[in-house]
Amino acid sequence: MTTLMVADDHPLFREAIAAVIAAGLPDSTLLEADSLAQAMREARRHEASLDLLLLDLGLPDAAGLDGLARLRDALPALPVAILSAEQDRRTVLEAIDLGAVGYIPKSTPRDDLLAALERILEGHLYLPPQVMRRPPPARPDSSPAPLDDRLTRLTDKQLEVLEALGHGASNKGIARKLGIAETTVKTHVSAILRRLGVTSRVQAVLLAGELDLAAYLAARRGR
Amino acid sequence: MTTLMVADDHPLFREAIAAVIAAGLPDSTLLEADSLAQAMREARRHEASLDLLLLDLGLPDAAGLDGLARLRDALPALPVAILSAEQDRRTVLEAIDLGAVGYIPKSTPRDDLLAALERILEGHLYLPPQVMRRPPPARPDSSPAPLDDRLTRLTDKQLEVLEALGHGASNKGIARKLGIAETTVKTHVSAILRRLGVTSRVQAVLLAGELDLAAYLAARRGR
DNA sequence: CCGGCCCTCCTACCAAGGAAGGAGGGCATC
DNA sequence: GATGCCCTCCTTCCTTGGTAGGAGGGCCGG
Questions:
Q1: Which residue out of A124, A130, A196, A203 would a mutagenesis test of the B interface target, given it has the greatest number of B Cβ atoms within 10 Å?
Q2: Which end of chain B is more exposed for a tag (fewer CB within 10 A), N or C?
Q3: Which of A49, A46, A68, A47 is nearest to A57 (CA)?
């Protein structure tokens, strides 16, 4: 006998979840809440028997993951899984970081949703494979010869300086690291700004990020 | 027919893994490597057929997660799972963050290890339940700080300023855009630097990027 | 060999960024 | 009603960033 609770402010959605669970986990009880406050009250009341809370992000009284944080704070022993429309990879990771035992996108097909719930109730974590799998490179790399060419207009030394710039280093720090005078660094920085067509180091750093300086450096070092 | 590779510098351990896989996944081939460099070479050679690389942390030529990062960089399409004695929760999360498709502690019982491999080969993520479950109890106060809440420590106005900062705007430009005095902008910027724990606007901008300020703003506006 | 580019460094100057402190008004909480 | 936080703005002072111009030495290709 397992007891679940769904916290979501959309009655229709709660109803849908209830139907799925009734069909797929017949030996279970489902509690409902339409706000974080109510969920907390109910959770405390059924503390001993509650096996899992399915928490929606976007409850009226819970600011996204902040609601999860508060919940974890108040009831650290309660397993909480996120059930959300949000599918951002960072959000998923942060939820797990905050102690969620699973993350189920609302777009999950009914059968997968049940499988996920079962995994979680067995003590495993569940994360959405299609979201988490192969995400971070995220470089479809449309143009093999991108030639955004602004980066190619920089000399080696300037690239070195720009790289350091990208770590938030000051001119003085760059000078130390590269073993040259600060005035020389300034010379390089000025040249970089001119060649990149920007007017401040912050803009240069942002542009370096957009043009994927790291990849450019990796590529040119690899050859 | 699946092809796996195990990268570990302990021959005995490789042998043990080979035995487990031979018994549990009879329809598979296992490649071996005793260094990151060799693993990369082998992986490139068998690029088309290799289904999963089991990577040990602590290879002689790869310092912990850095090896994973380099591997992901060089071969983004290759699924990599970590197989390590290390069981620190943060390490696990960072590995997943870097794109690992699973994390298997070396202490995992043989049967669970096989089950984990099967899950991973099916396209799911695997994380060690006993490590990840109920982990962050030390949340209420403690000091070392998870430090992802740094954005939440900023006031609305500060977030506005930080957003503008992220576009490379100068204090003067921000003042114009927000319709306040430049001195006020400076006040905000100073407060932002202090609360984010950085010492220059460039670092603040970089940190805002890492913490995904845009997503945070979108999330909080959406509610 | 010479012109051109790069790297190095300098001086000098001005603009921008940032720290520190004070101050008034608004708003909420207790 | 007092406390506390936020937002606003100010002055003062110092550091950092950036521009301009000049100068010497190295390297390369014409």
A1: A124
A2: N
A3: A68
How far is the C-alpha of A174 from the C-alpha of A176, rounded, in Å? 5
Using left for φ > 0, alpha for ψ between -120 and 50, and beta otherwise, residue B168 falls in left
Asked if B117 contacts B96 with a C-beta cutoff of 8 angstroms, the reply is no
The Cα–Cα gap between B121 and B220 comes to 37
**What's the whole-model pTM score?**
0.51
What is the CA angle A191-A197-A200, rounded to 5? 75
Cα dist from B26 to A141, A196, B111, whole Å: 38, 57, 14
The Cα of B43 is separated from the nearest Cα of chain A by a number of Å equal to 17
Q: Which helix (H) or strand (E) holds B173?
A: helix B171-178
How does the average pLDDT of chain A come out, rounded?
81
Comparing B118 with A196, which gets the higher pLDDT? Answer: B118
Q: What percent of chain A has pLDDT over 70?
A: 88
Q: CB count, 10 Å around CB of A211?
A: 17
Encode pLDDT of A40-82 as tens digits. Answer: 988 988 888 899 999 988 777 776 677 887 788 778 788 999 9
- Residue B177 has a CB neighbour count (10 Å cut-off) of 14
Helices (H), chain A: 11-24, 36-45, 65-74, 89-97, 110-121, 129-132, 156-165, 171-178, 182-196, 201-210, 213-221
Cα–Cα distance, B187 to B193 (Å, whole number): 10
The CA–C1' separation of A42 and D26, in angstroms, is 78
**Nucleotide closest to B193 measured between CA and C1':** C18
Contact partners, residue B150, CB within 8 Å, separation at least 6: B195, B196, B197, B207, B211
- The closest alpha carbon to A7, from A98, A78, A77, A97, belongs to A78
Counting one residue from chain A and one from chain B, the pairs whose CB atoms sit within 8 A come to 111
Which helix or strand (DSSP H or E) is residue B32 part of?
Answer: strand B28-33
* Six token digits for residue B201: 């606007």
DSSP secondary structure letter of residue A3: E
The 10s digit of each residue's pLDDT in B183-198 is 999 999 988 988 888 8
pLDDT higher than threshold 90 for residue B30 = yes
Of A176, A183, A81, A185, whose CA–CA distance to A123 is shortest? A81
Q: Residues A124-135: pLDDT tens digits?
A: 889 887 656 654
Tokens of A105: 């996108």
Which of B120, B87, B132, B166 shows the shortest CA–CA distance to B21?
B120
